[in-house]
Amino acid sequence: PEYSILGICDPHISTIATTGTIYRESPSGTTKGDLDGALENAFPHDLPNGKELLHLMPISYTLDDIPGVSRPIGMHAEVLQVKAASIMGGTSPLNNLKKAAKNAGVNAKGIVFTSLCLSDSILTPDQRQQGTLMIDMGAGTTSVTYFENGAISCAKVIGVGGNNITNDVAVVLGIPYKEAENAKISSGTTEPWRASSTGVLPVGGFNEDEVGTISQRELCAVIRERAEEIFQLVRNELDDMGIQPVPTLEVVLTGKTSTMQGMKDLAQDVLG
Questions:
Q1: Most buried in the list 2, 96, 220, 253, measured by CB within 10 Å?
Q2: What percent of the chain has pLDDT over 70?
Q3: Segment holding 235, helix H or strand E
Q4: Thinking of the domain 4-122, which architecture would CATH place it in?
Q5: How far apart (Å, rounded) are the C-alpha atoms in residues 83 and 70?
Q6: 210 pLDDT band (50/70/90 cuts)?
Q7: Number of neighbours of residue 120 by Cβ within 10 angstroms
Q8: C-beta neighbour count of 122 within 10 angstroms
Q9: Is pLDDT at 130 greater than 90 in this prediction?
Q10: Would the pLDDT of 216 be above 80?
Q11: 3-state DSSP call for residue 181?
């Protein structure tokens, strides 16, 4: 029968680092079975309350006293240790997703963290290997995922995204949400100083026949304020993860919200 894989990306996503070790007596080189055994020993048995394991992913290996080995198969060692990332989701959101799929008649085989799938589409093997930060700016969330040695090392999802920008525009400028979304898409930037101080945009009102205007500079100022806050939240998460933005760290922005003019420059300003 046909089946589907469900994806989830919500603020309950988190990661913890674990390690697993095996002691080898065989004189032959390390095998895939050895790697599987070490990873099995890295399984986090004491998950926080309200959390379920989505993925257990190896990051790197230590062979005896040699750390940072990414491809240990065939290499000799008496002690093999794996550093792994455990990606967890909230039990309630996962159960709600399963229930929604069942009610829709979807045969769900499993659930994955969507940033894992997204990275396969937009990151090269070199980017995943060398250390890359992927920021996915969606409608309702912004996910922050760090890759090293070809795998996810840590990840966090912030419950703020493009919808919050639209809502700010609607509230501050006093226009319907739909009109705010249209204005954001058609004329929004994170650089209000580039907009004419006298430039205006036509917008519909709350009544069917109502027509008005808004200042493009004010529109962009509202957008910048919220976008700046989003990147500051990202910066806070990086601090919690122990990731320091340095010139050699590659940052990849993705998601519809990230395509707005000036968003890349603003990210550089805030993240450093």
A1: 220
A2: 99
A3: helix 216-241
A4: 2-Layer Sandwich (3.30)
A5: 10
A6: confident
A7: 8
A8: 11
A9: no
A10: yes
A11: helix
